[in-house]
Hints:
- The protein is of the alpha/beta class.
- The chain is 35% helix and 19% strand.
- β1 (6-11), α1 (26-41) and β2 form a beta-alpha-beta unit.
- The radius of gyration is 17 Å and the shape is globular.
Amino acid sequence: MSKYRCVLLKLSGEAFIGESRRVVDPVKLANVAQQVKRVSEEGIRVAIVVGGGNIWRGSMAKGMDRVTADYAGMLATIINALALQDALENLGVITRTQSAVTIQAVAEPFIRRRAIRHLEKGRVVIFAGGTGNPYMTTDTAAALRAIEVDAEVLLMAKNNVDGVYDSDPRKNPQAVKFDRLTYLKAISLRLKVMDSTALSLCMDHKLPIVVFDLNMPHSIERAAAGETIGTLVASD
């Protein structure tokens, strides 16, 4: 039996890039969709927040007004959300995309009560458009949406990093992995769990965070089932 009844999965834009290095790799997308389907079939309510880094990065916005660049990034998350929605629906998973940026031709507006109702009916809900505000990351959007829909855990899927380390394991082979961390320690050590605003929001609402490697077999399913995987960030 699963430990959780409702989870929020945070996928970075890089989660959509596979070995082909395409902006949206169909193989990688299908793998994520298949795992989400199996989690949903276990009776776990699944909400997802997607990033847009595979399409739009800050480096592309040099010389551009910051607010304009952030809105462009929000549109990139909507593209990823629609791609994931299509992959899920091809597997027979009823899916709804809600956007914090009004774009009614392709997505519902974000309405908290409607999102919760979708989840209660067993539908997967994808949240796009970040928070709808510039200067806010999709990490913050993930923390906020998780709290709003009463998710019991925030699952942070990383690429080729199987948890939280005291330094970058891709640059430092001596980096030490944490199996468990408190929010305060993660903030004080400036560990790259997520941005500080999102981490503080999780701490204030005692929302546990599981950081794991998306590329490990069945990683989403294992994290959603409450298995020991990656790094757990929680209260004392």
